[in-house]
Amino acid sequence: MINLIGGVPLYVLEFGDELVYFTPYTITLFLLALTFTVLVLISRPEKQVDIAFGGDAYRTKEISVSEMRFRRFMAIACGLATMGAMVTGDIFNFTLFTAMVGITNVGIVAAVKSLHVQDAAYQYGLVALAATVPLFAGAAIYAAVTGSLSMIELMKGTLPAVPLIAKGMLMLGVIGEGMAPFYAAKAEMFRAPGAPYVIMCSLSSLLLFLRVVEIVMLG
Amino acid sequence: MIAELILATFFGLLLLGIHRKIIARIQRRPGPPIWQEILHMLKFSFKTTWIPKTATPVLFVGVVLIAIGIWTAAFYILVSGGSILVILGIYMLHKIVEHGFGLSSGSPYGKYGGVRSVISAASEIPLFVSVAVIAVYTHSLDLSAIMQYQQVHGPLLIIAFPAACAMFLVILSKMPFGPFSIVEAKELVSGYKTEHFGIWRAGLEICNGLKTFVLLAVFLAVFIGPLSLPWLLVGMILLIVILAFACALTPMMSPFDSVTIQMLVTALMLVYAAIVLLVVHP
Amino acid sequence: MKRTTVVRIFWAGAAVCVVASVLFFMGIIPLPVCAALLIVAFPVTVLSLFFCWMAGEFGGDIPFIGY
Amino acid sequence: MWGQYSYGILVVLVAGVIAFYALARERDDLHKLLLLDLVEIVAIGIIALLGTDLAEALILPGLTVGIAELLALSQIYCTKEGICERPVRGLNIEVIAKGDAPLIISIFLIAYGIILSGFTGGGVAGLGLIFLFISRMYREDINLLEMASGISWALWIFAFFVFMFLPQYWFIALMGAAIGILLKVTAKMSLVGTMWGEHRD
Questions:
Q1: From the CA of B162, how many Å to the nearest CA of chain A?
Q2: Are residues D70 and D109 in the same domain?
Q3: CA-CA distance, B279 to D181, in Å (whole number)?
Q4: For the segment C4-60, what is each residue's pLDDT rounded down to a tens digit?
Q5: Does A217 reach chain B within 8 Å, measured CB to CB?
Q6: Mutate which of A28, A82, A116, A213 to disrupt the B interface (most B C-beta within 10 Å)?
Q7: 3-state secondary structure of A161
Q8: Are D55 and D128 contained in the same domain?
């Protein structure tokens, strides 16, 4: 239907059947993921201030070093997985990276010592786990129908058309893993202190959503 | 190139000033002069500045740079007639920027502003649907190709009117004083930008000017077609007048209502997209 | 940061912006390259310009006492 | 072939709908997690329906990701419910005398694993080792195990380089990769077995 959604591929790296390609669209997304990952790498968490509304009382939350290390590691892993999902040219690899983003998103907030946040993280984790079903199923139907998982092949338009159900499942899987753009379910997670890390949650799911929009428009 | 960028920024700020002035006049106030937003930006840039002790310094400063950077990128994509999908992506990333502004300071007001910006993400789906509809008609997502299509077939504003309405709503949700601007509601002081003062705020104003310019120009390019520069500026002023009326005549909604209405619009848009996909262009 | 440092950053950023624009108009570099340079340089230039107006003359009128 | 695939998909989708329905009805957090583990099987089923060697290659990462998420979530559940401070001790069932029985079972599992070879074999052999370690409360030198795992991984990677650059020696590469992955998975799984609850008692 539509040719070349993200622009002409500028660079294609074929490594066996693993291939990586850059279009103006994916390169923009990749650079953004890279920028934020570097930010996570070099920034320290903020001291979140809690106030009692209606009173004068306020106090800052401290993040212990071990917790900070763990969360920073998770946030960087999340950034790397996001970058992978942005540049991969293989649908199954994309789903794997997406699933990894789901795990690391939970990991980013899992170390927070707050029952609210942990509860939200657990519930979100359940959704993410459930979302791997449509995610992998979508990729499998892609492979079954077209016989290929390569996005470059899909882009050429010579393969059989991908059924709408596969696209829907892929989309549903990404929405479940990253929750973008329905972050409302994640809102409790964003109450966790440690802005640079928490921001990675929303960034990764947003970028994944933007990428999957491109992918479902390919076939 | 740099000259265009600076001019676009200032024109965007001027548009925001016009927006403010019209709202004031509708509400029977004299209102500030229309160049108030430019003065505002300059005023903030002369303020003494530091970084709050509770903030995470790198993100606190970095997010201002990113905010200006992404809209600069959007401006050049607009100029070069690149893919509308990238501009859309940048529009959605602005949400992350707001989130970063709010959370990086550690202030509770900022945090709630940031969280609100995250939950109001529902406003983006109409945008996707309208883009999908445009793609169905024009068979391309490049701005230049969309403009070419409109030169031949007439403006998409007429052909795909609901899509234009959806995009209008999306722009409305990014306007100050609008019904959907729950991220900077007064009960949160200034929402996500509460703790960004001095030059950080001035940087944010630059970003706002550029953002307004790019969003309005993209709307005109996508739904009206190629316009010469004077007509483009006139069209943008017209659009901001309409937006100002929409903002002035509607109350600010509660976060819950705002999200509900955006979801409803999304549902309507999905129905419309399905009709277009199945009936108009099978 | 000292005022001199900020001023230097500003001039460097401004130089990159102007040179990139000029090179683009002369047709030496394509638009994406020019845009990439400006996307990096413009925010830095703007913020350093704002910063250098007030930097270093006196150290904040209200000392920040923290929360 | 195509008809079979469609029927297969239909069956799997029905299974998926039933599983998700159960998930929606379930209120208990832990039960939800267990149900989700079952739901994962549906995803594996859909991939397996491809029925090609590609499917086999896709199932493994899918399974790994699922297990990783399951482990992460159960850890969060423990923290959330405040049950992580419970001391984890070795398997203490009366039936298993700390005598020869675990050894025999372990040897059997390891031997079977070696015969199976490859990833699956590694899993089976690792299970045997875990069983041995848990039932005997054996404190293994973790550094040694990690080193073995690392060396076998290097062997595996080296075999792949042979595949890529010296394809005429494919048989050696195949054997190297098979042994490498077998040792690697065995070592890793026994690491999991010994490290579980390591920082306590």
A1: 21
A2: no
A3: 55
A4: 777 888 888 888 888 888 888 888 888 888 888 888 888 889 888 888 777 655 544
A5: yes
A6: A28
A7: coil
A8: no
